[in-house]
Each structure stands twice: as C-alpha cells, then as structure tokens.
Design a protein that fits this description.
The chain has one domain (4-232): 4-Layer Sandwich (CNF1/YfiH-like putative cysteine hydrolases), CATH 3.60.140.10. It contains six helices and twelve strands. The chain has helices spanning 33-47, 119-123, 126-133, 158-168, 183-193, 216-219, and strands at residues 4-8, 52-53, 63-65, 84-87, 93-98, 102-108, 111-117, 142-145, 176-177, 180-181, 198-201, 226-232. The strands form three sheets. The chain has a six-stranded mixed sheet with strand order 3-4-7-6-8-11. The protein has a four-stranded mixed sheet with strand order 1-12-5-2, with helices on one face. The longest helix has 15 residues, at 33-47. It is globular, with a radius of gyration of 17 Å.
Length: 238
C-alpha cells in the first residue's frame, strides 16, 4: 500500500477570473471569497480529502506537528505562523503555497510533511529540519520538490549568495550561476545531506512557465498561488 498521495497544483482547473484565473488559492487578494473556497474544494476533490491544514507562511524555519484538531473549518480561518508541518494523522491534507518559492513534500513510514522554502527558510535549513521532525530514519524518507523559480530566472543579490555560503560553505558555489542561483538544487542538496536518498525535483521554472504557474516575479505580485499537497493514507486508501 502506498504511504501517501500528493500533488502540486498549477493555474488550471479553477473558477477565478482575470488576474487570478483560474485555480487561485491565495486568500489575501481581491479574488471573491466564494471563488477561492470553490478552488480549495476542487483541490480537495483532486487529492480525495477536504480536511485542510495550512499556515501563514512567513519565511521562517518553524515546523508544527498537526493533527485533526488543526483542520480548518473554513479556508478563511485565522492561521498560525510557520512554514512547515508534520503529521501522523491519516486523511489530513497538508498544504503549502508558492508562487516562485520552493514547495517540498515528504513522506516516511507513517508520517508526512510539507514545507515552504523561500531563500530565507532554505538557508535556515527548513527542509532538513522537517526531516528531523518526522522522527524516522532519513533513509526511509521520500521527497518531492515542486515547481519553483529556476536558476534560469532567479536573479539574486549578494545577501542571498552570502547566506547560502554561510549555510553550506564553499560547496554552495556549485549552485551559483553568475547573478542567479539554483534554489531547488540547493534544497535537494540539503535534503541529501540530511540522509534522504530519494529526492525528485520538478524541472519546471514557474517564471518561465508563467502561463501555467503563478510567478510573483513575473506578475510583480498581482497573482494567485499554487500549492503542494500531501495526505497520509488511511487504511482504506492505497
């Protein structure tokens, strides 16, 4: 039996219009709430679970352990500030949002996790921290790194490069390409260094593929968000 089921959404398949067309999952915008609620419902139908847990993402390395008590009654409920979740509760959809940042989904024996990794969370080691919080053998963990801005488009300043060097030392330079960096590759390296052996990385750059994926940089901030979603299977699933 499969441990979990997961997906990464794109812009397609929702009901939003205009700048938010069509599968927008961003609450803090002028997309009508009824559209956003319907979009979440459609993602729930895709993953086979309507019990969601998600966070107020603040580019931290904070990881929460969640269970059925944390399931939102409404997608516009107040949120806890954190950037990662771990659960051992089946049939609970952990959801992280991105529009260029890196969404990471993890599964291990009887446990799943979801992480939002912007560059600040990345250099704080949030992905490896999530693996530790799963409290299982890292070699048993599988990881999926979803669509995010690629090294083709991710231009950064000296602050980001210095933070990456502080995190990984001189080996971080392997992820530099002139004024651009490979944030997905950097997260993969940190996961592998933590003991994870199986890491799948999406080749999709959200800025290059802005017609199919939300990109903060391409739109200048007038955009929705896509999501990474993972559900620990119950006994009847698989």
């Amino acid at each position: 039996m499969e441990i979990s089921r997961h997906l990464f959404t794109d812009r397609r398949g929702g009901v939003s219009r205009g700048a938010y067309a069509s599968l927008n999952l961003r609450r803090s915008c002028d997309d009508p709430p009824e559209n956003v609620r319907e979009n979440f419902c459609r993602v729930g139908d895709m993953i086979g679970c309507q019990s969601f847990v998600f966070l107020s993402q603040q580019h931290t390395d904070r990881i929460l352990h969640v269970d059925e008590r944390d399931a939102l009654q409404d997608v516009f409920d107040p949120l806890v500030e954190a950037d990662g979740m771990v659960t051992r509760t089946p049939e609970l959809a952990l959801m992280v949002f991105a529009a260029d940042c890196v969404p990471i989904l993890l599964e291990g024996p009887g446990v799943v996790a979801a992480v939002h990794a912007g560059w600040r969370g990345t250099v704080k080691g949030i992905a490896a921290k999530a693996v530790r919080e799963m409290e299982c053998d890292p070699a048993s963990v599988r990881a999926w790194i979803g669509p995010a801005i690629g090294p083709c488009c991710y231009q950064v300043g000296e602050e980001v490069r210095e933070a990456m060097l502080e995190c990984l030392g001189a080996e971080a330079r392997a992820f530099f390409q002139e004024d651009r960096v490979d944030l997905k590759g950097f997260n993969r390296r940190l996961l592998e260094d933590s003991g994870v052996r199986e890491v799948e990385v999406s080749p999709i750059c959200t800025m290059c593929s802005h017609e199919e994926y939300w990109s903060h940089r391409y739109t200048g901030g007038v955009r929705g968000v896509q999501a990474g979603v993972i559900v620990l299977n119950g006994e009847s699933k698989g």
